[in-house]
Amino acid sequence: MLREINFDGIIGPSHNYAGLSLGNIASTNNAGAISQPRAAALQGIEKMRANLRLGLAQGFFMPLDRPNNAWLNGLATDMANAEPHIRAAAFSASAMWAANAATVSPAPDTADRKCHLSAANLLTMAHRSHEWTGTLAQLKLAFADPEYFRVHGPVPPPYGDEGAANFMRLCTAHDQPGVEIFVYGKAGGPFPARQHIESSKAIARAHRLDPARTLFVQQSETAIAAGAFHNDVVAVANERVLFAHEQAFEFPEQTYADIKRLMPEAEIVIVPADRVSLADAIQSYLFNAQLVTLPAGGMALILPSEAETNERVWGWLSEMVAGNGPIRKLVPVDVRQSMANGGGPACLRLRVVADPVTVDQRFIADETKLDIIAEVIARHWPESISPEQLGDAGLINQVQAARLALLEACGLSELS
Ligand code: SUG
């Protein structure tokens, strides 16, 4: 039975605030702050538990090996000698934002009826550009069964790809053929557009999608300039529902018309800018929510607690769920440590539509496994990291040992 599985990136022991992402307001504002990797990772575990309790299928990915010494070797340096920005890039725990790991086209959408996954190159940001090697190794292990999955390497440079953060799928039900929507940006404003149309088109070809059921939509320049460095900061889709900010797309009317033409059942819920400004949307991350179908029917938004404390945002959301629209429930979750780097609940997960039994079971979560993982985190993850500590040999050893302990506890030491 095909169903949506959310794979969360377990927040790695090197989680820190280095201010590495130009155009990501939270990352810039919190540059230099002291991070709390242990609390961060436990917040991520609690989010997974809450989703399991809602009856959703849950998986996870391991943190990557940091610092990335192979990448530093390629730059002819190491942690002791690298310049601070290179050191921070090598040490980043950014693979936690699994929405950026890959683009996923479920089997009902592809010509060969296999689920295709393409690892994202993430080449716009130095600290993310070296994630794909570790990510690809993990995808190949988790989705190894060739009868059901095809795992592709990243699109080659110079075309930037940020994975599922710039991708949406509309369908009547997850196991039915869908309309796949790739959202790309055009550089022109103060911040980079990270998703290039050439990458999106390459992935659509590699995944053997039906061109008649595939859309390429331009992200709004205004949204990128306001800090929407990924489309999933201003829009989210689930089944036949698109929930988006009025200023998410450069050509909104055309975008909605194209969606309606390909899928007349689509329901488009637009949040007007005069109720929730782009600034409020980006501060509260109400769109960086997991829009999910509950087993009992109806949809819920699993959103960051920051959305609850923003009066204008919460006011609008409360009116929305009280009405008779498709989204009926709001579930705030505390992922503040990730949020301070610009990563909300939706950033932390990669959606894969598959039969859970066809996935390597070591990546599938249940309460007992989450207990084991939480214990490893509590025992091994650093309590705090300040930016000056990044080259510290003791910290590096602790971070490496912490990850190895987790791999061992999950039977995944082959990823070490
Ligand atoms: O790529 N932040 C991440 C946040 C990614 C959010 N993902 C989605 N929207 N799907 C990024 O900008 C900050 C790291 C730092 O500054 O230390 C960072 O990489």
Verbal overview:
The chain is α/β, with parallel strands linked by helices and 416 residues long. The chain has one domain (3-415): Succinylarginine dihydrolase (L-arginine/glycine Amidinotransferase, Chain A, 5-stranded Propeller). Helices cover 33% and strands 19% of the residues. It has helices at 25-29, 37-53, 69-74, 84-91, 126-129, 132-142, 197-206, 221-226, 252-262, 278-284, 305-309, 311-322, 336-339, 367-380, 393-409; strands at residues 3-9, 57-61, 102-105, 115-119, 149-152, 167-171, 178-184, 214-218, 235-238, 241-245, 267-271, 290-293, 299-304, 327-333, 349-354. The strands form 5 sheets. A 3-stranded mixed beta sheet has the order 2-1-15, covered by helices on one side. It has a 3-stranded mixed beta sheet with strand order 3-4-5. Helix 2 (37-53) packs antiparallel against helix 14 (367-380) and helix 14 (367-380) packs antiparallel against helix 15. The longest helix has 17 residues, at 37-53. The mean pLDDT is 97. Bound molecules: N~2~-(3-carboxypropanoyl)-L-arginine. N~2~-(3-carboxypropanoyl)-L-arginine (SUG) binds at residues 17-21, 24, 27, 92, 94, 97, 99-100, 125, 128, 165, 229-230, 232-233, 341-343, 347.
